[in-house]
Amino acid sequence: MSNFDIKNESLAEGGRRRIDWAAREMPVLSQIKERFLKEKPLKGLRMSACLHVTAETANLMRTLQAGGADVVLVASNPLSTQDDVAASLVLHEEIPVHAIKGEDNATYYKHIEAALAHKPQITMDDGADLVSTIHKSHRELLPDILGGTEETTTGVIRLRAMAADKMLMFPVIAVNDAMTKHFFDNRYGTGQSTLDGIIRATNILIAGKVFVVVGYGWCGRGLAQKARGMGANVIVTEVDPLKALEAVMDGFTVMPILEASKIGDIFCTMTGDINVIDKNHFEVMKDGAIVANSGHFNCEINIPALEKMSVEKRLVRPFVDQYRLKDGRLIHILGEGRLINLASAEGHPASVMDMSFANQALSAEYMVKNYKTLEKQVYTVPTDIDTAIAALKLKSMGISCDVLTEEQVHYLNSWESGT
Q1: Nearest-angstrom CA–CA distance, 179 and 299
Q2: What CATH number is attached to the domain comprising 278?
Q3: What SS3 class is residue 322?
């Protein structure tokens, strides 16, 4: 196979060990893979996936391939690729991969083009770059596309904006909105892996630090919880009064980000929006402040503004850029402002991605079966799929739960009974 672009083929054996290790913690996806091998629900379908190229993603690719899909994989973030995993997928699974950790912007979009050259019938996105590129410059592909899936909050926001403008030309399932995805992946996965990335990049002690979590969505909730668990004094900043109130009732200090900027030691953005840490925030930050992002795109931190304010920039540790301001203060940006949990760490634990990628696999199957009846809009994952994945996860953990009796079902669906 010659249609691939990876760093080094010699890394493949280490990648296979990493993939197999992750598979041990992905029992739900393993059960789906076994069924896919028998039923081949994706037989002959061309699929292009733009996802983080990790060991967990590799197990999703194995599952899709087992279902009969012809899959191509490219990176959804320039810093999230595990090069040994990419090599193993190419050499051991014969899945074309176009992804190199640290690739520049031109290479990133060259790889997007490679995914589209596959002429996909199903797209699988993490951030909607694949879908947006199709709509902007490859509209000739639209007639053959049945639908797609989207993994992230950021991507779902973009796709819903496209749908609202009547620009979305095929149905997409928002995997991100499944309870078994955002409840576990965003809260438990992002919470733990973001702290892991910050610690690996800096080797600092979290206990006693003022830790500012920017945004209290599912990801922000998880990070705030984990940072507090490690002894940090956690401040939450929000624009949504309901989420701000929730953070207060959860026991966190809530204040405007400009105020938090004056006292924070560590900042992490988790909003999916642009310039949530901006020039005016950098102007008041303490000397030595550490700034990271775990909200997908690096636009959450206005790095160009910081560069204009600085007289010097140097790499002081892997994934730590130190900016010296004109007044002598130092501000540290982690992982070029990209997803720190994937830039300097390994992303979510496999047991978390097990459910996220189970949603991806089953949503792709659902799309193939139902695309003819779906409108050109963004759909949530069907409840029966979400519930089935939760049940499979509980089963794999050796845990059972109760079932409603016929009497209880009747009571819940009737209105006659009262006090």
Answers
A1: 27
A2: 3.40.50.720
A3: strand
58 pLDDT above the threshold of 70? yes
| Binding site members | 54, 126, 151-154, 181, 185-186, 215-222, 238, 294-296, 341, 348
Q: What is the pLDDT of residue 186?
A: 86
Q: Which of 343, 371, 404 is the last residue of a domain?
A: 343
Q: What is the mean pLDDT of residues 322-344?
A: 96
Strands 289-293 and 330-334: parallel
Q: Looking at residue 148, which CATH number applies to its domain? A: 3.40.50.1480
Q: Are 139 and 162 in contact (CB under 8 A)?
A: no
How many whole angstroms separate alpha carbon 417 and alpha carbon 419? 7
Give the tens place of pLDDT for each residue, 120-148. 999 999 999 999 999 999 999 999 999 99
DSSP string, 48-80: EEEE--SHHHHHHHHHHHHTT-EEEEEESSTT-
Same domain, 334 and 359: no
* Short-list 234, 190, 182, CA closest to 208: 234
| 305 burial level (CB within 10 Å; 0-12, 13-18, 19+) | middle
By residue range, what is the domain housing residue 224? 188-343
| Same domain (yes/no): 20, 153 | yes
CA 182 → CA 40, 159, 228, 349, distances in Å?
28, 17, 21, 14
- Taking residues 326-353, report their average pLDDT: 94
Q: How far apart are CA 211 and CA 320, in angstroms?
A: 18
Bridge-based pairing of strands 253-254 and 266-269 is unpaired
Q: How far is CA 316 from CA 138, 268, 335, in A?
A: 41, 19, 12
Q: Which residues are annotated as a binding site for substrate?
A: 54, 126, 151, 181, 185
Ramachandran area for residue 215 (φ above 0: left; ψ -120 to 50: alpha; else beta): left
Report CA torsion sign: 119, 121, 125, 129.
Answer: positive
pTM of the complete model: 0.86
Residue in 162, 181, 177 with CA at minimum distance from that of residue 377 = 162
**Annotated binding-site residue numbers for NAD(+):** 152-154, 186, 215-222, 238, 294-296, 341, 348
